[in-house]
Amino acid sequence: xxxxxxxxxxxxxxxxxxxxxxxxxxxxxxxxxxxxxxxxxxxxxxxxxxxxxxxxxxxxxxxxxxxxxxxxxxxxxxxxxxxxxxxxxxxxxxxxxxxxxxxxxxxxxxxxxxxxxxxxxxxxxxxxxxxxxxxxxxxxxxxxxxxxxxxxxxxxxxxxxxxxxxxxxxxxxxxxxxxxxxxxxxxxxxxxxxxxxxxxxxxxxxxxxxxxxxxxxxxxxxxxxxxxxxxxxxxxxxxxxxxxxxxxxxxxxxxxxxxxxxxxxxxxxxxxxxxxxxxxxxxxxxxxxxxxxxxxxxxx
Length: 300
Known about the structure:
Layout (H helix, E strand, L loop, with lengths): L13 E4 L12 H13 L4 E4 L11 H15 L4 E5 L5 H14 L3 E5 L8 H14 L4 E5 L1 H4 L5 H7 L5 E6 L4 H10 L3 E4 L5 H6 L4 E4 L6 H12 L3 H19 L5 H11 L16 H16 L1
Parallel strand pairs: 1-2, 1-8, 2-3, 3-4, 4-5, 5-6, 6-7, 7-8
Helix pairs in contact: 1-2, 2-3, 3-4, 4-6, 6-7, 9-10, 10-12, 11-12
């Protein structure tokens, strides 16, 4: 991926938090990953985030993560950026994954706060700096305290923005005031990690989104940003509002986004396959509801 022009978001604007396709026996489906990646990029994604929450990173091995990066790079070439999740609760392990991601051809790494151990802010800051120092790849920090148990506080983000390779944040903090504070005081590229915030964060200076819902409607979500960029705020707002029922069912109806995205992709005949335990597939009622919301959204 070529280096973006000065002032442009480091990984593009419209990024998909791509699911990891598995075969029926639970193995990595590399052919499916390549076909899905090509579809996503062809339908408007500037970048793909692999091995994140949606990509089932807790249940994929280090070797699978690196293999996935290489396969997707082969499929999309330089048409899109590739960011891969490397965050763990072990600084040493995270550094190892950063080096492997660089070898595999990633354009950047997504580093989540160490989970379970819940380090204090000074230890958290040191963790991120150590990882950023370890490779030549730009780093996006992943702030999702609802899953990790640890917030990356705004003041910590402001300090971390001084590091030359810490360039972006995937924001799932649900602290809109804090996000605006960091955007206003740093050069960090802020990506909405919650689809309901895609337009709102973009409108106050965000870089774009890293979206789970984009797995199934990449072009429709891209249109929201395109309309705003064109200066047509009412159209962009209307497009975001139309996406809300599908966003709610996929992201806020009690099932993880990985489960709902794979359920819809499987119904649409697109690469997805099963989820890995401890996740379980959506039941028939949930799938029917998702499919109805999807069909209403894309045909309206």
